[in-house]
Prior knowledge:
Blueprint: E1 2-12, E2 15-26, E3 30-34, H1 41-48, E4 56-61, E5 64-67, E6 80-83, H2 95-100, H3 113-121, H4 137-150, E7 155-159, H5 167-182, E8 186-190, H6 194-197, E9 203-208, E10 211-214, H7 218-225
Parallel strand pairs: 3-8, 3-9, 6-7, 7-8
Antiparallel strand pairs: 1-2, 1-4, 4-5, 9-10
Amino acid sequence: MTLSARKINKSIGGKAILTDCSFDLKEGECLILRGPSGGGKSTLLRILSLLEAADSGAIIHGNTQWDAAFSRKVSAYPFLTLVFQQLFLWPNLTNAQNISLVLDHKPSHTLPSVVEDMLGRLSIQGLMQKYPHECSLGERQRVALARALVSPAKFLLLDEPSSALDSANKSVLVKELKEALERGRGALVVTHDFSVYSSIATQSFELENSRLRDLGNPADTSEADT
């Protein structure tokens, strides 16, 4: 199973945001992507998720190819899930209920033990009866990440997933992602901190001046950044 982009082009207000952007991401692989703020990284994730139309190009979800230039009322889930920087937790639901949205059980029921175990590893098990507004930004980020990790999505698209995490919680996140990759899931991580994810990355790119540039070996890239 592969998530692919083929010659994606996108302009906003006459300015090129994405130009001939292409890549292939297979199950079990992790692609890390960096670039300047406002450079089009989040736009690319939205196009891959079928939430925003491009000007031209194609998006491939496994055996299905989509013309990227057309908006559509089709969900990319559960082929992929996207964790936005804004997190998008429902404010009227508890954290447990937010996580239950991706589970095959009633939100009022106790969370499955495998989910409870992950919540414990992410140090948010005690936050489940709280509402998002009652939690810190870092706690909300871990709740949103937990929801993605326990979902059935084959590919995880994460937009600056560790921006509000301390070093200990970053390490925990990397471990959880590594286990997800070993189970055959794929991950695309937008980040300004390559060194955090270099140990699990199989590809690394930079999006600058609207074009994707292959940075080669992620370990070499992280060493150059430190």
